[in-house]
Design brief:
The chain is of the alpha+beta class and about 170 residues long. The protein is built from 9 helices and 4 strands. Strands 2-1-3-4 form a 4-stranded mixed beta sheet. Strand 1 and strand 2 form a beta hairpin.
């Protein structure tokens, strides 16, 4: 229910958007989230989410592809399972979107390596994170525990990156 409410708020409640990034506004977004959880039926939320806002149009993929991928994997990986093999085109798009990972890594310098796609460094990297672009996206969005990646670097820095609060 919480994920459905989050997605509806993201698409239909722009008044709550500042609460995602600015701690000062988080209590308001939290109250809206709580009210929607209490007063909404799950199927109604899914229906509301499925009706895409008119203004999203061509920005839909740019704004939502990575977040929807991450949330889809949240649901899939809630129960231990093998990762799915993504089409190369999807991996390529995810890798392209990871160009903005400096924001997601929140000041933790790292080098992301996606075999077959390339490498990106953010800050003075002391830790290298290697994996498929989808797995790197999960890692950078704070799903370090389920992302199938390899970390290489000094033990203390690797541990700090694994425990860091990453993502938005």
């Amino acid at each position: 229910m919480g994920l459905a409410v989050h997605l509806v708020m993201r698409e239909r409640r722009p008044d709550t958007w500042p609460g995602i990034l600015i701690p000062r506004f988080a209590p308001y977004a939290g109250r809206v989230h709580g009210r929607l959880c209490e007063t909404s039926d799950f199927l109604a939320l899914v229906d509301r989410f499925a009706r895409r806002p008119w203004w999203l149009g061509p920005l839909d993929e740019l704004l939502n592809l990575v977040e929807y991928f991450v949330h889809h994997e949240d649901v899939r990986r809630a129960v231990p399972s093998e990762p799915r093999e993504l089409p190369a085109g999807m991996e390529a798009v995810l890798w392209k979107r990871l160009a903005a990972s400096r924001l997601l890594l929140r000041g933790h310098p790292a080098r992301l390596v996606a075999p077959g796609f390339g490498a990106r460094s953010f800050g003075e990297p002391v830790v290298t994170v290697t994996g498929a672009p989808g797995e790197l996206a999960l890692f950078c969005f704070g799903r370090q525990a389920v992302a199938r990646v390899e970390l290489d670097g000094p033990e203390a820095e690797v541990a700090a990156l694994r425990a860091a609060r990453l993502g938005v």
